[in-house]
Structure formats: structure tokens, C-alpha cells
Design a protein that fits this description.
heterotrimer; A mainly alpha (89); B mainly alpha (110); C mainly alpha (162); A: 89 residues; 0% strand; C: 162 residues; three-stranded antiparallel sheet; 3 strands; antiport (chain A); transport (chain A); ion transport (chain A); cell membrane (chain A)
């Protein structure tokens, strides 16, 4: 059953990535683009976890955790940059 | 594998991917920035949480030994999602982004 | 004991996080975790909230369960709103007056408002007396304010008295 369900989930998540990418291209504002990048990060985590399940490997956990950490930091830094025009005051 | 357990993992995976997709759909089709903020910060976070719990169940039962370290990902996401939502909302208010005409109440002038 | 571990709660959380990260319960992991739980609070004593001494363990557990349940239920409602026709949405900015004074409690309240779907906490006023909340679709602002204050703020004020 899992061999059928995992590809379905992978394709659902890929569609989610595609939709977030359309928002990233369309904008219309910088804040929307940052939000789209944040969503892409979280979708990437879901994809990596699913891929780890598909390959039956526990090694992908670290990659997902690091993407979560970097995604949060980059979102905060970008938002701060467009608010203040500077990152470190 | 126990069929009940496999079914549970499948349901969790489908629910998780479904919520992830709903979050992205919300990001694409809602009318203004402040409403778009709702999709990714919540639906997507819950989706990843559910997917990761499915993965945790799978690795705990398939490989020997308890595998709880996947729990760190949803924990971290649940702590950070409100923070990034708030900081993005603040930056949007500071940039005076337009809200849809139907919105009641006004954002504060920063 | 209190000199060795100035913040027992922070130390405990750090040990648990370390054991989760290395995903093992061997003696070496315990020793390393206890070392980190001893060293990190010692290095960042000044950054930590002065009076973060949560009481009422039972209230905390109940609040946690309530937030989880609300997040699940209302996530489904938000999914229905997102997939339904967008012209039925009634977005609104709502000001919620808050009475809680403890900083950690206030942070937690804003996070809970953001996680419970339908609402995102947007901004805190300068004097920490009001939170601006954006709701995706809200018919009745008074009811929202009332439910935030009774469901989440009341237990938080019990957990973090000033």
C-alpha cells in the first residue's frame, strides 16, 4: 500500500511546490515573494521526508532539519531587510 | 508490516500532503497579502507535522529501535512559524501593502 | 543544585533536545547532554528571562492539549475557506486588548493566536496593551476577542503570574 501512496504524496507536494513557484514569479510585491520562498522551504522539507521514506533511508533527516533552520533564518533576514533596508543595525 | 499500521501511515501521509497542497493553493489564490499569510503559516506547518509523524512511525516499526528524532522538525516549525508570520506581517504593514476592499478595520500605521 | 543548574527547566529541555538529536540513549549521549545542559544556561544567564518559573503543570498540559485540538479543528475550517469561493471571505483587522504582563507569556499568547488558524497576530502596541490580529474570515469580532481572552489568556496568566 505504501508503494502506491508515497508517489501520490510526492506528486501532491510537487504540485504544491509548483503553485508556490507561480506566486514567487507573479509577486506582485517583495513580501509576497518572501512568503512564497518560505512556503517553498516548508514544501522542500515535506518532499525530503517523503523521499527518505521512499528510499527507506533515515539519512535525510539531517538535511530536512538544516533546511528548516536555514529557511527560518533567511525568512527573518529578508523580512528585516525590506523593513529596515539593513540587516545589522 | 501490520496492515492497520500501514493504513495509519498512509492516512497520515495523505493528510499531510493534502494540507501542504492546501497551503500552497491558499498562497496562490487568496486576494491580498494578509490573507495569503494564513495558508503557508498554518496549513503547511500542520502538513509537514503530519508527514513527519508518519515517517517517525515507519522508521520506529521498520528498523529496530525507537526513532523519535524526527519530532525535532515539527517542534522547530511550530516555534518558528508564528515568528516568521509576525515579522512578515510587520514588514507588509510598514510597506503599506493594500488590503482587499472588503477588509474591516485598518492596519496600524508604522 | 541551584548553583549547578541555575535554570533547571532550560537545562532539562536542552538535555531532551540533545538526546532527540543524536537519537540514542547511550551513556555517552547522556553525559554530553548533561554537559550541554550545564554549560549553555551558564553561558547565557543574562539572555534568559529573569522570572520564567512556570507553575501549575496541570494547567500547562491542559492548555497544550487545547491548543493542539483547536489547531487541528480550525485548520480544517481554513482549508474549507481556502478552497471555497474567495468572495465569501470576510477578512478583518481586530484589536485585542491584553492584560497579561509577563513577556514570555505574551510571546506565547501571540504564537498561539498565530497557530490557531483563522487568525495571525500582526503587531503588538508599544505599551504592550493591545495586539493587532488579522482574521481570515470573521463575522463577529467581539466573540473572537472573548474566546482569545478566556481560552488562551486566562490559563497563560495562571501559568505566568506577574
Amino acid at each position: 500500500m505504501l508503494t502506491i501512496v508515497i508517489p501520490i504524496c510526492l506528486s501532491l507536494c510537487s504540485v504544491a511546490v509548483l503553485l508556490a513557484f507561480i506566486r514567487l514569479v507573479r509577486g506582485p510585491h517583495q513580501s509576497d515573494r518572501i512568503l512564497a520562498l518560505d512556503t517553498l522551504n516548508i514544501n522542500a522539507i515535506a518532499l525530503i521526508v517523503l523521499f527518505g521514506l521512499w528510499l527507506d533511508s533515515n539519512l535525510f533527516f539531517e538535511a530536512a532539519l538544516i533546511i528548516a533552520l536555514m529557511g527560518f533564518i533567511s525568512t527573518v533576514v529578508l523580512a528585516k531587510f525590506i523593513t529596515r533596508g539593513d540587516i545589522i543595525e | 508490516m501490520n496492515p492497520w499500521l500501514e493504513g495509519l501511515i498512509c492516512v497520515l501521509l495523505l493528510v499531510g500532503s493534502g494540507f501542504t497542497l492546501v497551503g500552497s493553493i491558499g498562497l496562490l489564490r487568496l486576494p491580498d497579502f494578509f490573507t495569503r499569510l494564513h495558508g503557508p503559516t498554518k496549513a503547511t506547518t500542520l502538513g509537514v507535522g503530519s508527514t513527519v509523524i508518519a515517517s517517525m512511525l515507519y522508521f520506529t516499526t521498520q528498523h529496530d529501535g525507537l526513532s523519535l528524532h524526527e519530532l525535532l522538525i515539527p517542534l522547530f516549525l511550530f516555534i518558528t512559524a508564528p515568528v516568521s508570520a509576525q515579522i512578515l506581517c510587520k514588514s507588509a504593514m510598514q510597506q503599506r501593502l493594500k488590503t482587499t476592499p472588503k477588509t474591516r478595520g485598518k492596519p496600524w500605521q508604522l | 543544585m541551584s548553583r549547578l543548574f541555575p535554570h533547571p527547566l532550560l537545562s532539562g529541555v536542552l538535555v531532551i533536545l540533545w538526546l532527540l538529536l543524536v537519537n540514542s540513549l547511550s551513556l555517552g549521549s547522556w553525559i554530553m547532554g548533561l554537559f550541554l545542559g550545564w554549560g549553555i544556561p551558564r553561558l547565557c544567564t543574562r539572555m534568559w528571562f529573569e522570572n520564567a518559573r512556570p507553575r501549575h503543570g496541570w494547567t500547562t498540559v491542559r492548555l497544550l492539549l487545547r491548543v493542539t485540538k483547536d489547531a487541528l479543528i480550525a485548520n480544517i475550517q481554513v482549508a474549507a475557506l481556502v478552497l471555497g469561493p474567495t468572495r465569501r471571505l470576510k477578512p478583518a483587522f481586530i484589536e485585542v486588548p491584553v492584560d497579561i504582563r509577563d513577556e514570555l507569556g505574551l510571546t506565547l499568547l501571540m504564537s498561539i493566536i498565530s497557530l490557531t488558524p483563522g487568525t495571525v497576530s500582526a503587531e503588538l502596541s508599544e505599551d504592550h496593551s493591545r495586539i493587532l490580529v488579522h482574521a481570515l474570515s470573521e463575522e463577529n469580532p467581539e466573540q473572537l476577542i472573548h474566546s482569545i481572552k478566556t481560552r488562551y489568556e486566562q490559563p497563560l496568566m495562571e501559568i505566568f503570574p506577574c
